[in-house]
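A.,

Following up on our hallway conversation. Structure tokens first:
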């Protein structure tokens, strides 16, 4: 069995920095982050709503030399377990590298993908500092903290490209939280702080909150930089990605 693809972005310049990638969106997720911008992807979908892979393969083949990778996003791809592994094998068979975008809460599947050399890059969302109460507020469920910690440690010790990222939500994260996350990620980490933007969030209450202020995000990034290799901000008006350090 192969993981279902619910949505397709034929090309993107921003999902995998430095590459032109296609993006596959997989359905369902084990989290319910109140600021989730993909609520339509959280529920399982009927089989006849899946995108068939063969036409996608042909489309990407026709763009050979231009599209140089596939980002598998969601939803949360790792909830598909073996079926995700099969999908990554399939894409690798097409001659394309894979970036996995994940919430890092299924380390068994992540470990299999790394061990089988099926992914070239991972972007992991670290929702909050690693304390159960705060994490549950950001994830919308009682997340398995041991699993999240294990996912982080696995990526810290892997040899592939890894980007950790946190969407900074006003009222949910303060500078101490971000500094705590940066300390957990450690001195080799590439860390991105993303601005929260209201609109189309899973929680109606989130849509009433203000967007993250650029100066707030920048001050947090400067503080985080004492603990990671580099920290950048994304989603600030006027810049796609600004680096500190
Ligand atoms: S991890 Fe959170 S933000 Fe990501 S798809 Fe799941 S609910 Fe949405």
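Then the amino acids I'd put at each of the 245 positions:
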């Amino acid at each position: 069995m192969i993981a279902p693809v619910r949505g397709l972005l034929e090309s993107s310049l921003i999902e995998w920095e430095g590459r032109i990638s296609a993006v596959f969106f997989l359905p369902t997720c084990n989290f319910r982050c109140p600021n989730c911008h993909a609520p339509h992807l959280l529920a399982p979908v009927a089989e006849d709503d899946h995108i068939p892979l063969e036409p996608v393969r042909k489309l990407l083949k026709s763009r050979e030399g231009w599209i140089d990778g596939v980002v598998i996003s969601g939803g949360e791809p790792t909830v598909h377990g073996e079926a995700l592994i099969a999908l990554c094998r399939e894409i690798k068979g097409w001659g394309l590298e894979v970036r996995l975008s994940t919430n890092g809460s299924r380390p068994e599947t992540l470990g299999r993908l790394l061990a089988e050399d099926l992914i070239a890059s991972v972007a992991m969302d670290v929702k909050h500092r690693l304390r159960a109460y705060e994490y549950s507020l950001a994830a919308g469920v009682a997340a398995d903290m041991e699993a999240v910690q294990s996912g982080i440690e696995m990526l810290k010790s892997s040899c592939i490209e890894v980007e950790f990222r946190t969407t900074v939500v006003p009222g949910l994260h303060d500078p101490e939280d971000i500094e705590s996350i940066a300390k957990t990620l450690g001195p080799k980490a590439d860390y991105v702080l993303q601005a929260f933007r209201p609109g189309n969030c899973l929680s109606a209450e989130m849509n009433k909150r203000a967007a993250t202020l650029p100066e707030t995000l920048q001050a947090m990034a400067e503080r985080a930089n004492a603990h990671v290799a580099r920290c950048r901000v994304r989603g600030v008006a006027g810049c796609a990605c600004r680096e500190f350090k």
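DSSP finds seven helices and nine strands in the chain. Curious whether your intuition agrees with the design.

B.
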